[in-house]
Amino acid sequence: MMKKHIISLLLLLIALSSCKKQVNNQENKPQEIDDKSEVTYSDNQFRRFTYFFQSQNSQVLDVFKTDGWKKCKEALVHGAIYDFNLYQKETDFFIVIDTDPSYNSKKMYEALNQVQEFSTFKIKLEQTGVTFPKHDSGLERIYKLDQKLTYTSQEGQLKTKIGEKKRFVWTLLLQKDPEMMAEYKRIHGIGQAWPEITANMKSIGVKDMEIYLFNEQAILIMDTHSEFDLKEVGPKWQKLPRETEWQEYVAKYQRTTPGSSIREKWLDMVEL
């Protein structure tokens, strides 16, 4: 009789152990994530995609001086494509495309390619030996005024509209050294900007600023209030708290002459 009770007790313990394992397995099972959930954007948000190409062929610039380019640009800015701008300095060309916030680079390109004028424009570019950049060749953004989040070039930079503005696009070359490049990126990362420098920009009327990289080339977009006068503001800017110190600090990463002012280092790119 005792032997039967012991066997029954052992069977009961085995059964309880099995149940416990099933419960634990159920608890440890990963919860499924609803990948169909939609992100809600506000009306004043948009995505920005940037690209860069270079060409020694002078005929490329001629393409952008034609009425065909003007018509292409006008045709592109519709629906989900909010803005399409191109800037140039000598052999360098910088493209800035703003779209619906729900777009990624692939979807943005699909929208561009639906515009007949854009297809015609690409053919004319190809005739000069230039291939329009692919959607997945966007630039890395290393800095934004008051940056809180980072996005990949294919995601596009999620931005907020700032209303009326005056835009400046500048460029400079960085030292061709991987370690210095990495450090330059780091000091421009989220939370790394000196608070005095950020305050200085805001105090003189800078509404937004970004820095993008193409290899060792840095491209800066600065949007200011519409009445901004750089010739008037520039000298005052240089004298603001820690501004000279900051320029000296970053100069070692830049291919510039020591002691150069902001405007001496950063060179203009003109809009086409």
Overview of this structure, please?
The chain has a single domain, classed as Dimeric alpha+beta barrel (Alpha-Beta Plaits, 2-Layer Sandwich), CATH 3.30.70. The radius of gyration is 27 Å and the shape is globular. Helices cover 38% and strands 24% of the residues. The protein has helices at residues 2-28, 59-63, 67-76, 105-113, 116-126, 178-187, 195-204, 230-238, 243-251, 262-265; strands at 45-54, 81-89, 92-99, 140-144, 157-160, 166-173, 206-214, 217-224, 267-268, 270-271. The chain is of the alpha+beta class and 272 residues long. Mean pLDDT is 87; it is low at 19-37. The strands form 2 sheets. Strands 5-1-3-2-10 form a 5-stranded antiparallel beta sheet. It has a 5-stranded antiparallel beta sheet with strand order 4-7-8-6-9. A hairpin with a 2-residue loop joins strand 2 and strand 3. GO terms for molecular function: racemase and epimerase activity, acting on carbohydrates and derivatives. It comes from Flavivirga rizhaonensis. Keywords: Signal. Residues 1-20 form the signal peptide.
